[in-house]
Amino acid sequence: MNERLYRMGWQYLLAGRARRMWELRERFGSFEAAWLATEKELGERGGFDLRGAAELAARRKGLSLEEEEEKMAKLNIKYITFEDPDYPELLRQIPDPPPGLFVRGALPDAALWVAIVGSRRPTPYGLLVAESLAKDLARAGAVVVSGMARGIDSAAHRGALSAGGFTVAVLGCGPDVVYPPENRRLMDQIVAGGAVVSEFPPGAPPEPWHFPVRNRLISGLSQATVVVEAGEKSGALITADQALEQGREVMAVPGPVHSPQSKGTNRLIKEGARLVEGASDVLEELGAGRLFPPSSREASLSLTPDEEAVLRMLSAAPAPVDAIIEGCGLEAPRVLSALMFLEVKGLVRQFPGRLYARRF
User: Fold this and answer.
1) DSSP structural state of residue 180
2) Residue ranges per domain, the chain?
3) pTM above 0.85, yes or no
4) Could you give the C-alpha distances from 260 to 109, 229, 263, 265, 273, in angstroms and in order?
């Protein structure tokens, strides 16, 4: 077995507890060393109490990682680690990224990812707006991210799929678990036109505490989170709060002042969220009024100083991101952000292996 498999094992045992997993690796030096530790060492060095260490040791003993890997292969589920090139770059930047992701389908290779979330009990107005907004964003080249819940989430996925675009569903259960049950067909369509993603292992049930945990991944995968209908205590507002904590854009669709399902969105707008009436508002806020415009566009585009510095470093020959960071003399997060928006604006092209080249 290798470090990747031991990491996956810990994700079975500590599902949804990313910070604890990273802490465990730091305490033992590797996931393998933690996995091979005795029950006593899990308590003394791992920081678990006696009961917790005993429970972990017992569950670990009953878990065959090779068998679980075989089951995943039969279900077409991939395990992508934080260090793998397929791991989403935006997700790497959040404070508590999952050490690994369980994925069905294929994560799209696109520059712009936008989350659309909202009420599980939407009005016809909310459903119409969510679906049309997702459709227009998908047509513009954006990946639409949501949670496959009833209501607004499902409408957003359907809208992106109807446009022939990419969509990603982040689940609060295992990637093989259909929740809600009526979304089986939608889930199959999402896998065919994007991916279903979870930090919870196959077979994990949709426990109530899983959903606030997964919401940080919806916002973490996206440059912006758009809330379409949300009551005063809606889970979508948790996603919006997490997006703000992650330094991402928060936007909201206004609704009728007397509608309970508009209380949360209208409050977000009062507090400074960008008011969204259509896809153009989202793209404009992200500096991507038009994705991949013609090659004569550079003079007409407004670039930030960081984007200009990064663009000067690039040529038609693909360059590794580490070399770009070193050449620019800027901090890595600033360079990665600039590359992302230059790609959105059609000035930069990304190649496999985190290589970037300038478009001419």
Assistant:
1) S
2) 1-64, 104-285, 295-358
3) no
4) 38, 9, 5, 10, 19
The answer regarding whether domain 295-358 maps to CATH 1.10.10.10 reads yes
d(Cα 194, Cα 145) in Å, to the nearest integer?
Answer: 10
Is residue 158 within 8 A of residue 130, CB to CB? The reply is no
Which sign, positive or negative, has the C-alpha torsion 260, 261, 266, 267?
positive
Q: How far is CA 28 from CA 41, 51, 87, 214, in A?
A: 10, 20, 24, 27
Give the CA distances from residue 56 to residues 11, 50, 59, 60, 339, in Å, rounded to whole numbers and listed in that order: 12, 10, 5, 6, 42
* Spatial contact of 8 and 15, defined as CB atoms under 8 Å apart: no
Task: Give pLDDT < 50 ranges for the chain.
Answer: 290-299
Which top CATH class is 104-285? Answer: alpha beta
First-to-last alpha carbon distance for the chain, in angstroms, is 46
pLDDT at 165: 94
Q: How many Cβ atoms from other residues are within 10 Å of residue 5's Cβ?
A: 16
pLDDT at position 289 is 58
pLDDT of residue 295: 38
